[in-house]
Amino acid sequence: PTAQIGVTGLAVMGSNLARNFARHGHTVAVHNRTAARTRSLVDTYGEEGTFVPAESAEEFVASLEKPRRIVIMVKAGEATDAVIEEFAALLEDGDVLIDGGNAHFQDTRRREKALRERGIHFVGTGISGGEEGALNGPSMMPGGSVESYTSLGPLLESIAAKADDGAPCCTHIGPDGAGHFVKMVHNGIEYADMQLIGEAYQLLRDVAGYSPAQIADVFRTWNTGRLDSYLIEITAEVLSHVDEATGKPFVDVVLDQAEQKGTGRWTVQIALDLGVPVSGIAEAVFARSVSGHSDLRDASRHLTGPTPRTLGTNEAAAFADQVEQALYASKIVAYTQGFHEIAAGSEQYDWNIDLGKVAAIWRGGCIIRAAFLDRITSAYEAQPHMPSLLADKSFAQEIAAAQDDWRSVIATAVTQGVPTPAFAATLAYYDSLRAERLPAALTQGQRDYFGAHTYHRTDREGTFHTLWGGDRTEVES
Ligand code: 6PG
After folding, report:
1. Rounded to whole angstroms, what are the CA distances from 367 to 240, 242, 307, 363, 370?
2. What is the DSSP string of 293-320?
3. Could you say which DSSP state residue 209 is in?
4. What UniProt keywords are attached to this protein's entry (predicted)?
C-alpha cells in the first residue's frame, strides 16, 4: 500500500479535494461508485500528482497505508450511512473515516459513537469554500478524537487555505460532532451575511435609486474597508454581471426565490433547542422562506405600502455611507449570535471549543472569510471566556459609532416600506441586551395571572405568586 489518504465519492467536491491532496505531494487513492468517474479523474488530472485509482472498495482500502485515512465525499443524508458501513466493514482498529459532507452534527455524534465501539475513528469534518476552495484550499473544521487528529491533522492542514499570516485554516474543533456543529453555524452566519448584504442592496436600489452596476461599485468600495470579505466581493461581481440573452442586469432576470439545503435552518432549530437567541440568522432563514412562497406573495399584491421616495444624488451618496454603517453593525451582531450558539453547543456537549481558533480558521478559504475575523480572534484571545462578542470593547465602540446611522437606515426602510428583517432583528437584539428593564417582567406577571406560573422579585430571594382571583396578596410558593 502506498496511498496516504483516500477519497471516495468523486463528484466535483470530492475530485477537487483529491486533486488538492495530490498537488500537495500526497499519494491519493481515489474511488467512486461508478468507476468511469475514477478513470476520468485520473485521465484528466493524473499529471497533477500521484493517484491510485481503485475500482472496488476492497482494492481502495488495500491501497492505503495504515492507519488508513478515508475521506467520504458523498451527498449528506441517507446514503452516508450505507457508504460508512461499506468501508467500516473493511477497516481495522485505529483507521480513520472522515465525513466531509454537510452532515447534521447529531448524525455525526451517532456515527462516531458506533464506530468508536468498533475501534474506528470517525471524523465529521466541516469543509467550506465550495468547489474552488476544495481545490485551492478550503477552511476545514474536523471533529472526532484528539488521536485521529494526530494522524489526520497534518494532511488536512497541508491542503487547507492559509490565512494572511500563513496559518492553516484548519484546527481540531473538538470531539465527535463538534466539527459539523461549527460548520453548521458557519452556514447560519453565511445566511445572515448574505441576507444583510441583500437588504443593503435593496435599500440602495429602492431608496438611493442606484442601478445594479452602481451598487456593484459601492460594494467594491466597501470591500476596500472594514467590510472586506469574500461575500462582498462576489456580490459586486454578481451585480455587475449583465444577462447575455436580454442585455438586462443579471440580478433582474433571476427568479427572486431563494433556496436552501438546510444548514441555515438547522442552525436556527438547534439554537431554539439550546435557548440561544440567533434572531438575525433566523430572519435570514425566514427571508428565504418568505421569498419562496410565491402563492402568498401573489395573494398579497393588493396590499398597500407607502409611496417610495427616491433620494437625490447627494442625499443618495450620504445614504449609501449610512447603509455601510448599518451593515457593519448588524454584521457584528449576527456573528455575536453565531458565536454564542457555538459556545452554548460546546457547553452542552462538552466539546471545549476554542472560539478564537474558530474565528482564526474562518479567515481564509471559507465562504464567510473576512478581514473582520482577525478582530474576533483577537477579542477571544484577550478574553477567552467572554459571554458575548459584544463584551469586547472595540466592537462595542464601533457599534456605538455606527448606531445613529444604523437606526436611521432602519427607520428609513420602515418608512419607505423596504423589508429589512435582518437589519431590524439585529438592532432589536442589541437594544434588548442593553436595556435597563425589559417587558419580560410584565410577561411574568401575565403568566402568573393566568396560570399561577410564579415569578421572582428584584428585591428578595424566593418564588412568588399573587392571588389574582382573590385579594391579591402575595404568597411565597
Ligand atoms: C460552504 C457553503 C457550502 C454550501 C452551502 C449552501 O461553506 O462552502 O456553505 O456548504 O454552498 O451549503 O447552502 P444553501 O444551499 O443552504 O444555501
Report:
1. 20, 24, 37, 10, 9
2. -HHHHHTTTT---PPP-PPPHHHHHHHH
3. -
4. Gluconate utilization, NADP, Oxidoreductase, Pentose shunt
Residues 380-415 as b/e (b if ≥16 CB within 10 A, e otherwise) read beeeeebeebbebeebbebbeebbebbbebbebbee
Contact between 329 and 426 (Cβ < 8 Å): yes
pTM as predicted? 0.97
Taking the alpha carbons at both ends of the chain, their separation in whole angstroms is: 71
Q: How are the residues of the chain apportioned to helix, strand and coil, as percentages rounded to the nearest 5? A: 55, 10, 35
The three cell numbers locating residue 107? 448524525
> Minimal CA–CA distance to 220: which of 208, 198, 202, 238?
238
Query: Is 258's C-beta closer than 6 angstroms to any atom of ligand 1?
Result: no
Q: What angle do CA 347, 349, 353 make, to 5 degrees?
A: 60
Decide: 365 in ligand 1 pocket, CB within 6 A: no
Q: Cα separation of 27 and 365, whole Å?
A: 23
Residues 104-132 pLDDT 10s: 999 999 999 999 999 999 999 999 999 99
Strands 96-99 and 69-72: parallel
Task: Tell me what ipTM this predicted complex has.
Answer: 0.96
Q: How far is CA 185 from CA 230, 334, 360, in A?
A: 18, 11, 15
Q: Would you put residue 275 in left (φ > 0), alpha (ψ -120 to 50) or beta?
A: left
Cell reading at 328: 457593519
**DSSP assignment letter at 48:** G
Q: Is 16 in the pocket of ligand 1 (CB under 6 A)?
A: no
pLDDT tens, 352-365?
999 999 999 999 99
Give the separation between CA 67 and CA 76, rounded to whole angstroms: 25
Instruction: Look up 85 and say whether it is catalytic.
Output: no
E strand intervals along 64-144: 69-72, 96-99, 121-128, 139-142
Give, using CA atoms, the residue closest to atom 1 of ligand 1: 128
